[in-house]
Structure formats: C-alpha cells, structure tokens
Sequence to fold (174 residues):
Amino acid sequence: RSGRALGCRPSESARSTGNRIKSARRYDSEWEEANLYGRGQQTVSFGPPVTPNVIKYLMIANLAVFVAQALFPLLWQIGSVTPYLFWRQGYLWQPFTYMWLHAGLMHIAFNMLALWMFGSPIALLWGEKKFLRFYLLCGFGAGLIIVTWPAIPVLFGTSVPQGYLIPTLGASGA
Fold:
C-alpha cells in the first residue's frame, strides 16, 4: 500500500508497480464497489454519484403524469385504484395507473427524491432493465394487493370495509 499516490485508483497503482493483471482486476472491482457505496473517498456528497437513465425517465414520466393530472382533474378519479371500481365496474387498468398519480407537490417531491436517492444505486447495481422490471412489478403487485385485500370480506359476504370504497393513489407499498 505504500507508494500509492493519494486519490489514485488501486488498479492504476497495481499496473504501475507491475503486479499481475488478476490483482489489478481485483483492486478495480473493489474500488468500483467502494465508489458505488461512497466509501474510500474523502469528499462529502449528497445522493448517488451517477443518476442512471432509467431513473431519469421514470422521474420525467411521473412529472408528466403529475402535470396531466393538474390539467385534467378527472384523471385521478379514473386512474387511482379503488377496489369497488376494479371488481364491480371493470376498471382493470387501475392497479397499474395508480402508481403514476400523486396527491400534491410535496407527495411527488418526496417520492422523486426517494426514487433518485434509493433507486439510483440499485439501478447501477442491477442494471436498468432489471430495475425497471422491479419498479413496475412492485407497483403493479402493490396495486393488486390494494384491490384484493379489502375485497376478501366482501367476497365472503361478511362486511364491506371502508377501504373497499376509498381510492388510493401513488405507489403505496411499491
């Protein structure tokens, strides 16, 4: 370890001292892992070092739907997930559309902050396609749970819970 310049990647140092290529690859992956999680650096930063394109596109899509929702107020009524409308009226798109809707400026601001802060490292680690599948599957899966759970007592004829009639918007549980 002695003889390395400060801020020099271990792989560069390993190459300069003539170490084996195998050793250089090991150091390179360790450096990349340390860089991804923010270890091994002397600087203080906020958020991920890089924002993957999939995160940018998801944020743009959410913002576009938020603007459309502001322009067309009826959008939240047909897009938010309501168990009664799903099961009795055939609004089968709701478990997918609800996750793009937001209740206000603070709601979308904090959701996009969380997507950027927590989604970026995961997307960098997993890859963009795998992260997008995960994002959509979690949102859709949570939507299916939201419409199914309150419908169980209705199915057995015991009662109609309040959640059966109340709409949900935003990817709650995703």
